[in-house]
User: What shape does this take?
Amino acid sequence: MKLAQLVERKRSSGRGSIYSIQPYASVREVVRLLCEHHVGALLVVDDAQEVRGIVTERDVLNMIHTRSSNLEDVRVEEIMTRKVAIAESEDTIQHALQVMSEEGIRHLPVGDDNGIVAVLSITDLLHALYNQDEICIRHMGDMFSGSHGLKVF
Assistant: This one.
């Protein structure tokens, strides 16, 4: 399945919004937006709406763990990831998962000729794979549990 199909499914379910924040915003604002929108990542965009990075729940937790700073005193640009991996809408789910694994990330922006069209989480991708291959997964589970008459020695 292509990411474009997954993006369309996500949009049609009402979960396709892209949330962003500016680099000079506070980490407290990051936490507020993440909680308000029930997402794990925000794109960091400048005044011209160009992507400058991504900030995630993990970035916030790492900041809290390594600093004793007040959330109001730390700016997004201090904790964001600047090198943003961006998938193309014509990439496959498998390719996106490979990129996420190689980069050690859990959120992947997806772009096309019009710019960023979605931010997909690893959960989005795994759910899509599961739904796509549900029958195959069930059969594999049956094989491993022995319900297909296979004997495990």
Residues 134-145 form the longest helix (12 residues). The helical segments are 3-12, 27-37, 57-66, 76-79, 93-103, 122-132, 134-145. The chain has a mean pLDDT of 88. The beta strands are 20-21, 41-45, 51-56, 87-88, 107-112, 115-121.
